[in-house]
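Entry 14. Ran structure prediction on the chain below.
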Amino acid sequence: VQLVESGGGLVQPGGSLRLSCAVSGIASRFYTMNWYRQAPGKERELVATRTSGGVTDYADSVKDRFTISRDIAKNTAYLGMNRLKPEDTAIYFCNILGGPESGVNYWGQGTQVTVSS
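Output, structure tokens:
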């Protein structure tokens, strides 16, 4: 199983980015997809979740600005980020998660997002 993030970069405050997480080796549609981020000196935090049933949830700090989605045909998850703020600067990781009995808990290598003028 492999997860590969892309789409990070440098963006000005107020700008937008869309991160992608290409999944291989497993059918992601059967599992929960998560996006986490980790800023320098801080713990990794859960940003957005999308279950296999399509239920989504977001951290309060990104609610109404970020959108998690998936393309089943491409086996890819996305994180759309709008109205970006400097405090959104972090390395963003995608994660695929199954139930405890599934043994499914895999991570990508991360992609850097920097919000700065």
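The chain has no helices and eleven strands. Will compare against last week's run tomorrow.
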